[in-house]
């Protein structure tokens, strides 16, 4: 293994940080793919794969992906929620892999809600 | 594809003994079976500290905390959490008396009140991967120390931060570094004292096991500051996993050129070797430790000269404890102002405590100096199990003392050796170096053993004296003979043969041993006796005058009998006691009351432990 | 007595006198004790008095001059284990094995030791058997632990 210089250490830190950032639970964007029974039946797993592919292809390191159960709107699955830090979460419904691509380009990268696929902005009030 | 989930499986000694590695293997297999091995990454980490509920796993990025996992739980866990995204409530932690499980690690009281500096990376890094450490700003403090700071500035930073030795005595670290820097003699040495001998303390083991690079980086910064060429990590023989992890870490650091010659092109040369202890408590004392590194008997010698002037191979040597070294990188990276805001006026920063004994949430916790014992034992520790009454807490191992329950609202800090302090109301005892010494105990390495009404304080004093008497190296008479005399007296008292004169003798001998012993072992050995005599004198008197042990621990003073009603009505004469009694002193038939033949009974107390119905009465 | 093992250990430490303790640790590990002829050989090769090797061997707890059992049992008697009743665990092992701490069963299957603190105080009382660690041990649990290793020995004896 080559001896490190200070610049190498900085570069290694950046690379390793990307791989482990997830553990700190903080990212710019959080994407929740709804994987209840209904979500999975409607193709949610493919949506998850598409999301992870987008992250890989775009080399993103500040996007966290997580899953949740049924969102209660089974007829509109597959669904996902995109939450940009500091903004209200947006629920996207009736997803396809193509729509995921567009949502990434517009919302995750561009910061503009892809309204044509969005069900609503915000989430239910709990308690 | 990037991973979307990291499963941080605890592989500290405690969790491994509860089969956490089997859980990890089952998880790997199940993930492959479900085709999720590219989405979910499994990371084995060091100790998380909450050993009481292991094996543990934290799922990130959501921070879901799973506990007491078994291989049987794995299929459901994978199906529900990783496939369907529904965290499994059944496997979460529910604090005593809480209505529902707490999903997130950060919300659990045991973790919520902690502030991690020395343990900053625990559970977040794989201790065998240097990349994980680097990702968490590892070796950035070294870069800063090499490129932006002079050695004097480093020492100034550590001094102003107010860092004090975490091994027990609380000597200011910056002052020690300056002495070694100014001492004449080459080469200079740095030693990491990992001979964690105090029974009841295991923070050093945990740091080695969960974040070994933090110690290496601290030593590197120390090397730059004092101009040391070589370092030695001295590690206790009883810690095989810690030994393995620090060796791996040193090897990795060497491969990356972070140890060796011309480190990071800065001109700094420094390398570290590892010495394994061979099982002698006295080797935690610095001069004995140095003798042991040199391949000799671990005999302490008189100081001065201090190791700072004449240490390893007669050269200036800086010796600090594991936790102290682990604190160095964050101080350098964040500055002394940041560090000195944490803690109390005289005791800065945090301290790691092992919270053990009669407390619900046993484990390892790091808290700001100045926290009170009440916060530690009740808020973090969850109180005393089984509705028992809290009696005392023992701090500082065999060198420390017992602090009675009445003082638990006082914060924890370090005490100046001159001990000049205004008398304070015990009811607000802060945990710091000063206040613990004031009440006759000491910080020590941070073992906090909680004791309840079933603990006999005379027995505890005898336990510690038996320890120090056995570990006394015999070099000086006060320690060799004094501890023996005190142990004999204590044994006599626990057997019901003590006299009131014995108490005075204990105090007198205790003071002589304290004042005249050669090294720290003898100087502090009487502390457990003197503090219990001070705060629990009535227990001693009960043993002597009434021939009773109020906690029913000292067996010679107990009598045992079986309550016939409980035995039959609740236990249906189950006979467990009869089968387990080593003296065959218990008689009885199924469904009939059992009884103890007191002429045969040797009072071992096994019947009490094995009876499921509390039918054995001790008086 | 074959000396190839000890020769290898001496070489590994560069025949340095200062590494005497480390060599003794390796010898202890290889032979489960420090055999007299091995100590004599070591002292001749390194040119250190036998008395020095002997003093180290008797000062440090890690060393034994008698063979240890194949399954060395260590009962922790640290503070946390003590207040949680470790003495009764130790006594149970003594009764079951018929030996005292420091001794080995005649068949060399088990050795019994009391140790100061294994640093697993969160799981007190703690016992180790070889590399295996057992936490929250109770008197009835001692039987189960012993059974596990007795089974291994029985299976071993058959083959």
Tags for this entry?
heterotrimer, A: 127 residues, alpha+beta, 5-stranded mixed β-sheet, 4 helices, 19% strand, B: alpha/beta, Glutaredoxin, Rossmann fold, Ubiquitin-like (UB roll), 25 helices
Question: Can you walk through the features of this model?
Answer:
- The complex is a heterotrimer of chains A (about 130), B (about 625) and C (about 160).
- By secondary structure, chain A is α+β, with helices and mostly antiparallel strands.
- Chain A has 4 helices and 5 strands.
- Chain A starts with 5 loop residues before the first helix and ends in a 6-residue tail after the last strand.
- The model of chain A has no long low-confidence stretch (mean pLDDT about 85).
- In chain B, a hairpin with a 5-residue loop joins strand 10 (about 350-355) and strand 11 (about 365-370).
- Chain B starts with a strand and ends with a strand.
- The model of chain B is unreliable at about 415-425 (pLDDT under 50).
- Chain C is an alpha+beta fold and about 160 residues long.
- Chain C folds into 2 domains: about 5-60, no CATH class; about 70-160, Glutaredoxin (3-Layer(aba) Sandwich).
- Classes of the chains: A alpha+beta (about 130), B alpha/beta (about 625), C alpha+beta (about 160).
The major β-sheet of chain A equals: 5 strands, mixed
Distance between the termini of chain C: 26 Å
Architecture per CATH nomenclature, i.e. the level-2 architecture of chain A: 3-Layer(aba) Sandwich
Strand arrangement across the biggest beta sheet of chain A? 2-1-3-4-5
CATH superfamily of the largest domain in chain C: Glutaredoxin
In the CATH hierarchy, what is the class of chain A? Alpha Beta
> How does the helix and strand content of chain A classify structurally?
alpha+beta
The DSSP helix count of chain C reads: 7
Number of domains of chain C: 2
CATH architecture tag of the largest domain in chain C: 3-Layer(aba) Sandwich
Element pattern of chain A in H and E: HEHHEEEHE
Low-confidence stretches of chain A: none
CATH topology of the largest domain in chain C: Glutaredoxin
Q: Roughly what percent helix of chain C?
A: 40-55%
Oligomer: heterotrimer
Shape of chain C: globular
Global shape of chain A: elongated
Q: Calculate the mean pLDDT score of chain A and round it.
A: 83
Can you identify the CATH class of the largest domain in chain C? Alpha Beta
Tally of DSSP β-strands of chain C:
4
The CATH topology of chain A is what?
A: Glutaredoxin
């Amino acid at each position: 293994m080559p001896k490190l210089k200070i610049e190498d250490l900085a570069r290694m830190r950046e690379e390793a940080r990307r791989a482990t950032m997830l553990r700190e639970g903080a990212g710019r964007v959080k994407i929740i793919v709804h994987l209840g029974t209904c979500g999975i039946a409607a193709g949610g797993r493919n949506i998850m794969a598409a999301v992870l592919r987008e992250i890989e292809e775009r080399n993103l390191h500040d996007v966290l992906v997580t899953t949740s159960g049924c969102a209660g709107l089974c007829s509109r699955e597959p669904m996902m929620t995109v939450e940009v830090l500091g903004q209200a979460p947006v629920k996207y419904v009736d997803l396809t892999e193509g729509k995921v691509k567009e949502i990434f380009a517009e919302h995750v990268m561009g910061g503009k809600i892809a309204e044509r696929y969005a069900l609503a902005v915000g989430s239910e009030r709990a308690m | 594809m990037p991973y979307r989930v990291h499963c941080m499986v605890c592989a500290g000694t405690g969790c491994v003994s509860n089969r956490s590695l089997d859980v990890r293997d089952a998880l790997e297999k199940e993930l492959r079976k479900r085709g999720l091995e590219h989405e979910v990454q499994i990371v084995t980490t060091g100790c998380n500290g909450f050993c009481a509920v292991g094996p543990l796993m934290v799922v990130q990025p959501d921070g879901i905390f799973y506990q007491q996992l078994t291989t049987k739980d794995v299929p459901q866990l994978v199906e529900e959490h990783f496939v369907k995204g529904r965290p499994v409530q059944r496997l979460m932690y529910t604090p005593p008396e809480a209505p529902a499980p707490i999903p997130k690690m950060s919300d659990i009281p045991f973790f919520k009140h902690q502030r991690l500096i020395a343990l900053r990376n625990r559970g977040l890094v794989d201790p065998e991967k240097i990349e994980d450490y680097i990702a968490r700003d590892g070796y950035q403090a070294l870069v800063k120390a090499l490129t932006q700071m002079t050695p004097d500035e480093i020492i100034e930073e550590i001094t102003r931060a107010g860092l004090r030795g975490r091994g027990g005595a609380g000597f200011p670290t910056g002052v020690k570094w300056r002495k070694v820097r100014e001492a004449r003699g080459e080469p200079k040495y740095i030693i990491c004292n990992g001979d964690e001998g105090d029974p009841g303390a295991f923070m050093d083991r945990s740091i080695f096991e969960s974040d070994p690079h933090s110690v290496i980086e601290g030593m590197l910064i120390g090397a730059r500051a004092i101009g040391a060429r070589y370092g030695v990590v001295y590690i206790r023989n009883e810690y095989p996993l810690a030994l393995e992890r620090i060796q791996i870490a040193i090897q990795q650091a060497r491969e990356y050129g972070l140890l060796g010659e011309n480190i990071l092109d800065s001109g700094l040369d420094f390398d570290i070797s590892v010495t394994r202890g061979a099982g002698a408590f006295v080797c935690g004392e610095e001069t004995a430790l140095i003798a042991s590194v040199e391949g000799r008997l671990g005999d302490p010698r008189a100081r001065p000269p201090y190791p700072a002037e004449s240490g390893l191979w007669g050269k200036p040597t800086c010796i600090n404890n594991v936790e102290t070294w682990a604190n160095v990188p964050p101080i350098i990276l964040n500055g002394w102002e940041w560090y000195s805001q944490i803690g109390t006026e005289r005791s800065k920063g945090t301290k790691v405590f092992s919270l053990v004994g009669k407390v619900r949430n046993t484990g390892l916790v790091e808290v700001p100096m100045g926290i009170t014992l009440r916060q530690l034992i009740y808020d973090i520790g969850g109180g005393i199990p089984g509705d028992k009454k809290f009696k005392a807490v023992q701090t500082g191992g065999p060198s420390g003392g017992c602090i009675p329950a009445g003082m638990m609202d006082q914060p924890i800090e370090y005490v100046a050796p001159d001990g000049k302090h205004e008398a304070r109301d015990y009811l607000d005892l802060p945990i710091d170096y000063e206040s613990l010494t004031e009440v006759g105990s000491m910080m020590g390495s941070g073992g906090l053993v909680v004791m309840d009404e079933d603990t006999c304080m005379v027995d505890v004093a005898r336990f510690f004296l038996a320890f120090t008497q056995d570990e006394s190296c015999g070099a000086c008479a006060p320690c060799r003979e004094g501890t023996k005399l005190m142990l004999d007296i204590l044994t006599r008292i626990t057997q019901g043969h003590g006299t009131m004169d014995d108490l005075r003798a204990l105090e007198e001998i205790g003071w002589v041993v304290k004042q005249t012993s050669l090294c720290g072992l003898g100087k502090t050995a009487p502390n457990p006796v003197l503090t219990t005599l001070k705060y629990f004198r009535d227990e001693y008197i009960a043993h002597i005058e009434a021939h009773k042990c109020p906690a029913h621990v000292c067996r010679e003073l107990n009598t045992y009998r079986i309550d016939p009603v409980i035995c039959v009505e609740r236990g249906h004469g189950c006979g467990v006691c009869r089968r387990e009694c080593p003296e065959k002193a218990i008689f009885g038939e199924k469904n009939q009351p059992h009884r103890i033949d007191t002429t045969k009974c040797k009072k071992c107390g096994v019947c009490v432990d094995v009876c499921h119905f509390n039918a054995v009465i001790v008086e | 007595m074959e000396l190839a093992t000890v020769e290898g250990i001496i070489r590994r430490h560069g025949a340095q006198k200062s590494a005497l303790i480390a060599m003794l640790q390796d010898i202890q590990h290889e032979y489960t004790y420090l055999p007299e002829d091995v100590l004599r050989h070591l002292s001749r090769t390194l040119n250190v008095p036998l008395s020095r090797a002997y003093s180290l061997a008797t000062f440090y707890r890690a060393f034994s001059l008698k063979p240890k059992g194949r399954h060395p049992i260590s009962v922790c008697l640290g503070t946390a284990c003590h207040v949680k009743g470790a003495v009764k665990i130790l006594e149970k092992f003594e009764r079951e094995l018929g030996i005292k701490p420091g001794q080995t069963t005649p068949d060399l299957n088990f050795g019994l030791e009391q140790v100061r603190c294994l640093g697993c105080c969160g799981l007190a009382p703690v016992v180790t058997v070889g590399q295996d660690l057992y936490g929250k041990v109770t008197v009835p649990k001692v039987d189960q632990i012993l059974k596990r290793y007795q089974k291994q020995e029985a299976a071993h004896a058959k083959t």
